[in-house]
Design brief:
Elements: E1 22-27, H1 29-40, E2 44-47, H2 56-68, E3 77-80, E4 83-86, H3 98-117, E5 121-125, E6 130-134, E7 140-141, E8 152-156, H4 159-168
Parallel strand pairs: 1-2, 1-5
Antiparallel strand pairs: 3-4, 6-7, 6-8
Length: about 170
């Protein structure tokens, strides 16, 4: 008798990965969990070079930034409650010293660009269809960094919009 669990049949995927693959994982906390398991199993992988990002637009923006290799400038940072942040990055990149934050962001971007050149597998987790835009310029953000709620508008992304963003990316 099997109690307290559901046995699922094994489903073969359309592709396989091996230890010879280089993997980049970008997206929600799902990629953190999968990436941690892959690293423990000694796979060569880079996970969330901008930190955890939760919506499909921010995930696409992360990938585009890495592909373009456009380094961040001081003007790309915002100060909130004594900490410097990037709207494109997780709070783990934030800090009190603007130059240190910028250096950490650009080091991660450069590392991701170099790793991407050797990568043969990209694992993407799109997260949620809910996204936030800054009211000032309508740009999507990956993280609100505890800025006042009236700084943003919350929006549910349509399937068609997500497909269009990813076709361009």
């Amino acid at each position: 008798m099997q109690t307290f669990r559901t046995v699922m049949p094994k489903i073969e995927g359309s592709f396989e990965i091996s230890h010879s693959n280089q993997l980049i994982l970008i997206g929600s906390c799902f990629t953190e969990n999968i990436g941690d398991r892959l690293k423990r199993a000694k796979f060569s992988c880079l996970q969330n070079p901008f930190g955890i990002v939760f919506n499909p637009v921010s995930v696409a923006n992360t990938l585009n930034q890495i592909l373009e290799n456009r380094l961040y400038q001081e003007a790309d940072l915002v100060e909130i409650n004594g900490l410097w942040h990037s709207w494109d990055h997780h709070g783990s990149f934030s800090g009190t010293d603007k130059k240190e934050v910028l250096n950490k962001i650009n080091q991660s971007l450069t590392e991701a660009r170099l790793f991407l050149e050797k990568t043969d597998t990209l694992l993407v987790s799109l997260g949620t269809a809910w996204a936030f835009r800054k009211q000032s310029d309508q740009a999507f953000v990956a993280n609100c960094h505890k800025a006042p709620a009236n700084t943003f508008t919350r929006e549910r992304l349509s399937t068609q919009f997500i497909i269009r963003i990813w076709k361009i990316s």
